[in-house]
Amino acid sequence: MTQFPDPETYWHSRRNLGYLMFLSRWLQVPLYLGLIVAQAVYVVHFMVELWHLIEDFSVLDATDIMLLILGLVDVVMIANLLIMVIVGGYETFVSRINLSGHPDQPEWLDHVNANILKVKLATAIIGISSIHLLKTFIDADRMTVEVMLWQTVIHLAFVVSAVALALIDRILQPSMHSVSKRRRPRTGAEEQPDAVRAPAGADRAENGEAADARSLPA
Fold this sequence. Notes:
- The protein has one domain.
- The chain is 72% helix and 0% strand.
- It contains 7 helices and no strands.
- The protein is elongated and about 80 Å long.
């Protein structure tokens, strides 16, 4: 005869397994710490490039200076991308940072979720690609037509992807809003059963009866 497991033991084991899965989100913490180290490397790279610009500015022409400055802007935009991934990813997938009311809290972090984070990352990637494309066109004399063409195609692919992500987020927002509205906790007035609530015209009827009683002669 087949013996079925005890229901209480079964649900307890399922709850423990789900809790273990929930704890697995902390495995992402070393990844975000590694990105912080990568950002420190980019800071060092930025300072080295800035030193080269200061050291050689007297022998550089306008085009070379512009290319070096665009390289610095590229480093800054990649650092911004890292910040969005580190802070937004930790806030979305690991744990709340609880920065409410903090004067330095970024505006985008107040309403960040997975969809918004993807759109912002796609926008940042478009900015980085634009910098690389601008550097290519400034230095067009040293570039082949094929390289310039492929960089333009890749940049347009990034733009189309970002627009698609934004449209998907816009389509999903009404449905997500309706789900959150259904899950909204009911207030005390909403939790009061209909049988306990007074009829809408009861107060007006009582007020009318009181006025008639006052108008009767003594």
